[in-house]
């Protein structure tokens, strides 16, 4: 016989609210259980031949007595864990709980209102009872309908809130209960509750500042200083609770942007910053939450920067309170969008502290986002080199399941940090590069490939570490079907300017010549892919064998077509000219360019381009041509003179056209001038200007 068979349950749903600690939704409910004693009694009588049916009422009473006895025994022996309380309920349950000796009743509300006009003790007792009622949200509307009650409480808070902190605290908590619901905000505004709470906080802070100043004045007197510190700490304890509830109430009212603007005019931001030194977790939680909300506006953010808020926040990073730490990190994340505040964060040595939080799964996402913002500026990237950040990031990357792409926050931070040479070396220590290549071959993750490409940007060991993996990179290049991934693979190979690679062998083994010719056909591939291919060709033609393979294919004609069709794309034009510059260093390819194409004429035209880098690169390529072809040299000399003296030439031609030019009767007015020296206009013909071209340098 089961007990459930003789029990009737009724479930009543209560409050539904968020739990910010466990990140879940709390549903409060009540279960009313009715024991069906009659049914059980009848079944007992039916099965027992010794009990007459006239004894039914007696059996029912006995069953009920047994059930009550069992319930009392269970309650005395078993610890029952109650439902988890929300922050609001925890805050309310902390209010003078020791004074709640009798339960308040709505039927006695008039009596409580009358006590509000008695002495201080009567007012405190009355406000405690009213607070008990206000804690039940079902009573709020009924309490609000009592005009006398609301007006009396608002008056008491204005007149006696600062004089009697206990009374002020009780009344503030009552209004706090109302402030949790937006529909009651207008009533609070009509009674100037927000203004009164601001005045209370300002008055209490003035008391604190005066005592703090007095304490500092006794610093040279140890005894007086110690006594003053005790008084200061006692004042903090006394003020902590009323400041917490007042600021929490104001935080609720600040849902209205106009109300928040009025608070800002009353210096609420600077007041909140001043309270960040207090060792009061409950108060700090409210303050930091309020600052987080305020920080989304530029004016408030600037005031936090002036108030050195970041330095104070940095001291709290080591807290063991996860809820408080979460709020701290979210506030820092809001502030980290500003460059000046980023600077303050770095000066406050936040980077090492944040890196130490990466292993903490609870806060990892926020920490990674925050570190990402700090890693955007190149000048801060090197600071990560003196932490364990790169080892942690590599571990997290490799631990990501092979069937998933790496989280965006994680890989974005890694990409940024690998833009620094020292960080890149930390990333590939040991078998780092081997494991990264192994993973990217399995996942084909474009962002991971982008990080690997950033590593290849750096010289020395960062390039040499790719030599054993050139076959893997070439294989991925030929098999890749994702254009984003393809761009990063080609870009990585294009960065490998080391002389230890036999590019001619790679071109033949993986049939890269055919791949290049195919992708250089206009319209076949996206511009990003074509640009990387042009750069890679410029890297490959470093030796005579590779240049000869390129000459024997249609690659050069493909490059000429690119130059003609992408004239408006400065980066494409610049990289194509550089590739021609490299090809002109070998006799066979130079002869082909001079006799089989119109590249020289195109380069001459580019001497007049608006982009100075393109003009420099074209000039350097023509310098090589001029050394081997006198006719071309003469033409190049003339065009360079025009390019360097465009303004003067334009004026001269204009005067000639108008018939105003009259040379000296005895000869040209420039007859005695020395011959034009080409070296005066060509400038340096070394690779100096090429060092400014993104992605290259020898």
From TrEMBL:
Tell me the segments the record calls region Disordered. Answer: 655-698
Where does this protein have compositionally biased stretches of type Acidic residues? 663-675
Q: Which residues form a coiled coil?
A: 92-119
GO cellular component, as recorded: axoneme; ciliary transition zone; kinesin II complex
Among InterPro entries, the record links this protein to: ARM-like, ARM-type_fold, Armadillo, KAP3
Entry keyword set: Coiled coil
Q: Which GO terms describe its biological process?
A: cilium organization; microtubule-based movement
Q: Please provide, alphabetically and separated by semicolons, the GO molecular function terms listed in this UniProt record.
A: kinesin binding
Which superkingdom does the taxonomy of this entry point to? Eukaryota
Pfam families for the chain: KAP
Q: Where is the composition biased (Polar residues)?
A: 678-692
Protein name, per record: Kinesin-associated protein 3
């Amino acid at each position: 016989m089961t007990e459930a068979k003789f029990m009737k349950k009724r479930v009543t749903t209560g409050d539904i609210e968020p739990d910010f600690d466990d990140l879940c939704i709390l549903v409060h409910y009540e279960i009313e259980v009715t024991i069906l004693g009659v049914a059980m009694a009848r079944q007992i009588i039916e099965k027992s031949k010794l009990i007459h049916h006239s004894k039914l009422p007696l059996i029912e009473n006995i069953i009920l007595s047994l059930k009550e006895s069992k319930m009392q025994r269970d309650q005395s022996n078993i610890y029952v864990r109650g439902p988890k309380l929300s922050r609001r309920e925890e805050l309310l349950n902390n209010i003078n709980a020791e004074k709640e000796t009798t339960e308040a009743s709505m039927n006695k509300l008039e009596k409580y209102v009358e006590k509000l006009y008695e002495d201080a003790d009567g007012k405190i007792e009355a406000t405690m009872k009213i607070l008990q009622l206000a804690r039940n949200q079902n009573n709020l509307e009924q309490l609000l309908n009592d005009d006398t009650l609301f007006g009396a409480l608002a008056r008491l808070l204005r007149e006696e809130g600062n004089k009697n902190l206990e009374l002020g605290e009780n009344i503030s908590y009552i209004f706090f209960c109302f402030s949790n619901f937006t529909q009651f905000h207008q009533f609070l505004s009509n009674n100037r509750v927000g203004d009164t709470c601001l005045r209370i906080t300002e008055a209490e802070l003035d008391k604190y500042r005066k005592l703090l100043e007095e304490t500092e004045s006794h610093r040279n007197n140890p005894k007086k200083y110690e006594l003053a510190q005790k008084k200061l700490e006692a004042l903090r304890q006394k003020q902590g609770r009323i400041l917490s509830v007042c600021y929490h109430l104001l935080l609720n009212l600040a849902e209205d942007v106009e109300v928040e603007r009025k608070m800002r005019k009353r210096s609420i931001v600077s007041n909140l910053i001043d309270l960040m030194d207090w060792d009061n977790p409950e108060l700090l939680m409210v303050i930091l939450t309020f600052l987080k909300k305020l920080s989304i506006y530029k004016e408030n953010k600037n005031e936090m920067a002036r108030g050195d808020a970041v330095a104070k926040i940095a001291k709290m990073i080591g807290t063991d309170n996860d809820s408080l730490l979460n709020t701290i990190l979210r506030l820092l994340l809001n502030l980290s969008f500003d460059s000046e505040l980023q600077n303050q964060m770095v000066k406050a040595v936040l980077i090492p502290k944040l890196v130490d939080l990466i292993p903490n799964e609870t806060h990892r996402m926020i920490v990674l986002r925050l570190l990402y913002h700090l890693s955007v500026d190149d000048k801060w990237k090197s600071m990560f080199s003196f932490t364990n950040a790169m080892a942690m990031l590599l571990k997290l990357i490799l631990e990501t399941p092979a069937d998933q792409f790496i989280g965006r926050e994680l890989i974005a931070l890694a990409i940024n940090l690998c833009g620094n040479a020292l960080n890149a070396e930390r990333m590939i220590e040991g078998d780092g590069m081997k494991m990264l290549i192994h993973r990217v071959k399995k996942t084909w993750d474009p962002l991971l490939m982008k990080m690997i490409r950033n590593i290849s940007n750096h010289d020395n060991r960062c390039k040499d570490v790719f030599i054993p993996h050139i076959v893997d990179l070439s294989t991925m290049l030929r098999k890749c079907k994702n254009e984003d991934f393809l761009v990063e693979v080609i870009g990585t190979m294009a960065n490998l300017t080391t002389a230890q690679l036999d590019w001619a062998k790679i071109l033949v083994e993986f049939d890269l010549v055919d791949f290049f010719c195919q992708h250089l056909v206009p319209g076949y591939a996206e511009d990003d892919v074509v640009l990387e291919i042009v750069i890679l060709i410029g890297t490959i033609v470093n030796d005579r064998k590779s240049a000869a393979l390129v000459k024997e294919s249609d690659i050069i004609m493909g490059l000429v077509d690119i130059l003609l069709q992408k004239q408006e794309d400065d980066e494409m034009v610049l990289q194509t000219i550089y590739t021609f510059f490299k090809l002109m260093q070998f006799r066979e390819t130079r002869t082909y360019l001079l006799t089989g194409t119109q590249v020289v004429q195109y380069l001459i035209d580019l001497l007049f381009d608006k982009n100075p880098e393109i003009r420099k690169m074209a000039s350097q390529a023509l310098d090589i041509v001029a050394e081997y072809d006198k006719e071309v040299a003469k033409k190049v000399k003339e065009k360079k003179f025009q390019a360097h003296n465009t303004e003067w030439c334009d004026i001269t031609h204009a005067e000639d056209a108008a018939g105003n030019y009259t040379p000296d009767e005895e000869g040209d007015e420039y007859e005695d001038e020395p011959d034009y020296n080409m070296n005066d206009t060509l400038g340096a013909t070394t690779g100096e200007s090429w060092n400014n071209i993104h992605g290259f340098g020898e």
